[in-house]
Amino acid sequence: MTGAAVPDGRTVPDGRTVVRGLVALKLRLLRNGLRRSPGRTAVYVVGGVLGLVVAGFTALGMAVLNGRYAGSGDTGVVLLGVLTLGWAALPLFLFSSDESADPTRLTMLPLRPGPLLRGSLLASLIGPGPLISLVLVTGAVLSGAVGGSSAAAAVVGVPLALLCLVTLSRAVAAGNARMLSSRRGKDFAIFGGLAFALLVQAANVGSQSIFGRQHGKDIDLSPLRPIAAVLRWIPPISAADAPRTVGEGHYAFGLLQLAAAGALLVLLLRWWRGSLQELMVTADASTVEVARGVQNTGGWRFLPEGRTGAVMQRHLRYAWREPRAKAALFTSVGMTLVICVLSVVQGWSSVYLLAMTGTFLGLQMLNLFGMDGSAFWMVAATLRTPADARDELRGRAYAVLSYAVPVAVVLGLVLAAVTGDWAGLPSAVGLAVAVLGCGIALGSVFSVLAPYTMPADSNPMRNAAPGQGGLILLNQFGSMIGVAVLALPVGGYLFWALASDGPTWPLLLLGPLYGGLVATLGIRLAAARLLERIPEIMAKAIER
Amino acid sequence: MQASAPSPSEPAPSAVSIQELWKHFGSQAAVAGLSLELPAGAFIGLVGPNGAGKTTTLSMVTGLLRPDQGTVLVHGTDVWADPVTVKARIGILPEGLRMFERLSGRELLQYTGRLRGLPATEVDRRTEELLAVLDLARDADKLVADYSTGMRKKVGLAAALLHNPDVLFLDEPFEGVDPVSAQTIRGVLKRYAAAGSTVVFSSHVMELVEQLCDWVAVVNAGRVIAQGPLDSVRGGRSLHEAFLELIGVREDDGQALGWLGGGHSGSAR
């Protein structure tokens, strides 16, 4: 405490006050976030407990591996590698939802960088994420630890690794804050998210090929060895491996591993501090980013005249320009690709997987007007006749078709080439188009009858405002199941043809015909209700 | 250019002294060599059209945005030599109002006070008084996320006033605010200025500036094009007329848009 006069708020506060204030702030934000809705509290608590239980069992399992299987320490190293990647990627998804990670809200206050950094670091150690990580890091250490000297190294290694992980996440977030909050950054986050999902799938396949291949009771951990041999020298993973190294008697190497992690921590803290200071004195992304005009291309001339063409154009422009629409589209395509790649890797691929393209891209027709958000009034104000309503829905359907059909054809060619089933290709494309038609029909109907609110902030990773869970489930599952039921005639024919060696090629004609018929019916049905339900849709489309 | 402490012989010491301030975004100069002396104890209006550089200037003056060039002194202290010390002595209501949305109004003020190093009892006392005066007492326990624009501006103002700053900077404090809240804000600002503190606020509502301010600076294209006491700037006209003339706006002669209006027939189906 300084001996100065009673602070009147016009002097710079001392460091301890700031640190305590920031920690209290984090706690309060956590509590208030939960206070908003009981449902969210439940999800948070259940998620946290579940995470802890899973982490606990993982840690226990790794401790059990120790001593029983050769190379048990390698599992810990690999786990920590995954954990590190997770913490580094975390800001991509969570930045806009975690207020306490956003230093720009503190810019008005007289805070020196030192206390600000200490307070932020302490605050970021609070929460279920760091706790779960602590359990996992402990498990990783236990997987390879040997004896008392390991324990001594673990006392330093575990907290050091945890500090590194948390700091890494915060430093990445602060270092890229401007980018992540800009429109371009959100686009980037979509691809980051997709890449991350692919990586998780790859890890999944990898772990299955190790732990699924157990003959009798023996687990063969040897495939991990080459990966672990590299990873164990990379900080902060090295900090968790140091107890094993020390336990095995290599004191110098163990110390080196700890020192590497310590050096990383110092570097990360420096980077974070620099970014924090920079963030507080630079302009918001919206100011810095020089807004470019959009190019006016002539390719739109091929679109239909009138409302249908205008709607189609708008829908396609949004699919490219608006992060949320883009995220939805790329997730659909990405999910299809992930499953296709998995099927090829695991050897159960078939050209008929193409039907998924129809299902997933048909989802793009869901909640059309909820996606319009507060701009829906522009649609509503110009809908006057049933013909308008039909054109509106038809335009959106054409827009979806305009990218879904090419994607289906290209993917079909790839699948046929990989599986060698060229004979099945025509029927697979027909099936996909039929399924797509059913998706368009159901999407139109659900968009009119059960729209839901999208969150006002444009975080592409959040797909609905709180409290809409039921409606989303109804939409997504209703559409998936509905599509499956509606596509039964086509699927049934295919099943019959495949089972009894009948011709499958007629599906190339039947599929589009049937899909087109169902889609037209669906659009007619939805259009009839659209006009009368405008006020109800408006109430849902605009948040609050 | 360190200004010495104001001597009694100088009649109007500057609260804020801005010299040759520059800021580029890309190739565009948002603020282009802006210089300005703002007298202490005055109620100052910073007016200008959209994109004139008002927000950029206020951000640089308050230590929120690093200038490319130029110096800013607030009561003699160089803002960019020691931003933290200056921030301790000024209050800011920035544009956009980024606040902790998941704190209640009361909690927001309490934490602001704590982070400014005020003793807890003093924070509580000031918080309750500010909430009462700004007519927020009833909503003090609602989360800021659920506040209306007017309420957000009011709680932002309370946070800016909590430490009784020497100079208060407000960026468009009345934009999107309902008349009742605007009246409340005006009352509080007037009381604050009457006690001898300096208020600097930006606005493009001339009537408001005319009613509240005794000193005006007109900014256009990143430069000051007129400054001084209100009466000398407006020179017998309304501030609105004086402003349009200074900016150089020409009346539209109505040649374009000839098709607009008067059509009661032939609407397309």
How would you characterize this protein structure?
The complex is a heterodimer of chains A (544) and B (269). With 544 residues, chain A is an all-alpha fold. Chain A has 2 domains: 15-211 and 218-283, no CATH class; 306-541, no CATH class. Helices cover 73% and strands 0% of the residues of chain A. Chain A has 23 helices and no strands. Chain A has helices at 15-35, 38-65, 72-94, 113-124, 128-142, 147-175, 177-181, 183-211, 224-231, 237-247, 251-280, 285-288, 306-321, 323-346, 355-362, 368-372, 376-382, 386-419, 425-449, 469-486, 488-499, 507-530, 534-541. In chain A, helix 1 runs parallel beside helix 4 (113-124), helix 2 (38-65) runs parallel beside helix 5 and helix 5 (128-142) packs parallel to helix 10 (237-247). The mean pLDDT of chain A is 82. Chain B has 9 helices and 10 strands. A 6-stranded mixed β-sheet of chain B has the order 6-7-8-3-9-10, with helices on both faces. A 4-stranded antiparallel β-sheet of chain B has the order 2-1-4-5, with helices on one face. The termini of chain B are far apart. Chain B has 269 residues and is an alpha/beta fold. Chain B has a single domain, classed as P-loop containing nucleotide triphosphate hydrolases (Rossmann fold, 3-Layer(aba) Sandwich), CATH 3.40.50. Chain B is globular, with a radius of gyration of 21 Å. In chain B, helix 3 crosses helix 4 (120-133). Chains A and B meet through helix 1 of A and helix 2 and helix 3 of B. Chain A: Keywords: Membrane, Transmembrane, Transmembrane helix. Chain A: It comes from Kitasatospora aureofaciens. Chain A: The chain crosses the membrane at residues 41-65, 77-95, 116-142, 148-168, 188-211, 251-272, 327-345, 351-379, 400-419, 425-450, 471-499, 505-527.
